[in-house]
Amino acid sequence: LKMADSELLQQGDFVIAIGNPFGLENTVTTGVVSALGRSGLGIEGYENFIQTDASINPGNSGGALVNLRGELVGINTAIIAPNGGNVGIGLAIPMNMARNSSDQLLEHGEVRRGQLGVIIQDMTSSLAEAFDLDAQQKGVLITQVQEDSAADLAGLEAGDIIVMVNKKLINTASQLRNVVGSVRIGEALKLELLREGKSRKMTVVVGERSNLLSRANKIHPRLNGAELKNAENGKGVIVAELASGSNASASGLRVGDRIVSVNRVAVSNLKQLTKVAERSSGKMLVRIVRGNTALFIVLS
């Protein structure tokens, strides 16, 4: 199949899903692109899904999502099905994202995702007003810049609001993560940001993830691959980033999880987590809050 540029997809475009649902080979279903850039679903570390109402069921994963020209626009991946059946919400990885990953696997044997080295959050109307901006101001607010990171070296500061990357508008934190994660390490990104209400342009050279994850790795080997930050409400430690294939990821941690106890000892911040982890020589029993659910995970 010819690979399409998935950036050209638009909401409402007709698409065709091909796969083997429930073992029924060469099944074809049709639908439209319901939405683009779906994220925050807790399915993968990096999420930028195409949402479609073309029927996708167990067995469709890995199958083709094509446009009416027969070009491959995405890889069928998952469904949202509260009761286990298809309800018209199918998700596919965009072809550009899949192609970027496959190219890196062929070149390096692994997917190397870069980072700026910042902790970020979405702008809200109340935050915008607090920064003396229009209440409708969009962008991503930098809450912390990690020392010696790509962002630090470029001169980014806490309080900066990123509004554009490579002339593309940035509205959400997940969108920024996906843009940066799709860029090869060492490549430059041109940022447009607001600092104290004034527009600025800056260039940042994307850094390696491994250099930015050392803080969590030093806490305990069981947390290898996780970037952690204190919860804003002071009730736990948030998993801010996860390296694909890392020990923390393989053990079941997900981006957005809130760690509230380690080995049955409550932890409210990174300092407490580090203190408890230092006393652990074997497996770690971690209690997390994921959405509205609490569960235990063993880090081995």
Structure description:
- The protein is α+β, with helices and mostly antiparallel strands.
- The chain folds into 3 domains: 6-108, Thrombin, subunit H; 114-209, PDZ domain (Pdz3 Domain); 213-299, Pdz3 Domain, CATH 2.30.42.
- The chain is 19% helix and 36% strand.
- The chain contains 8 helices and 20 strands.
- The protein has helices at 95-108, 125-130, 150-154, 173-181, 209-212, 214-219, 247-250, 270-278, and strands at residues 14-19, 27-38, 49-52, 64-67, 72-79, 90-94, 114-115, 118-122, 140-145, 161-165, 168-169, 188-195, 198-205, 207-208, 226-230, 237-242, 258-262, 265-266, 284-290, 293-299.
- The strands form 4 sheets. The protein has a 6-stranded antiparallel beta barrel. Strands 8, 9, 10, 11, 12 and 13 form a 6-stranded antiparallel sheet that branches. Strands 15, 16, 17, 18, 19 and 20 form a 6-stranded antiparallel sheet that branches.
- β4 (64-67) and β5 (72-79) form a beta hairpin.
- The longest helix is centred in the middle third of the chain and has 14 residues, at 95-108.
- The termini are far apart.
- 34% of the residues are buried.
- Mean pLDDT is 85; it is low at 210-214.
How large is the radius of gyration?
A: 20 Å
Order of helices and strands: EEEEEEHEEHEHEEHEEEHHEEHEEHEE
For the secondary structure, the number of strands is: 20
Net shape: globular
CATH level 3 topology of the largest domain = Thrombin, subunit H
CATH homologous superfamily assignment of the largest domain: Trypsin-like serine proteases
Major sheet: order of its strands?
1-2-3-6-5-4
Largest sheet: 6 strands, antiparallel, barrel
- Would you identify the regions where 5 or more consecutive residues have pLDDT less than 50? 210-214
Question: How many alpha or pi helices?
Answer: 8
Percent range for β-strand residues: 35-45%
Fraction in helix: 10-25%
Class of the largest domain, according to the CATH hierarchy?
A: Mainly Beta
> Can you give the mean pLDDT?
85
How many domain units? 3
Class from secondary-structure proportions: alpha+beta
Give the N-terminus to C-terminus distance in angstroms: 41 Å
In the CATH hierarchy, what is the architecture of the largest domain at level 2? Answer: Beta Barrel
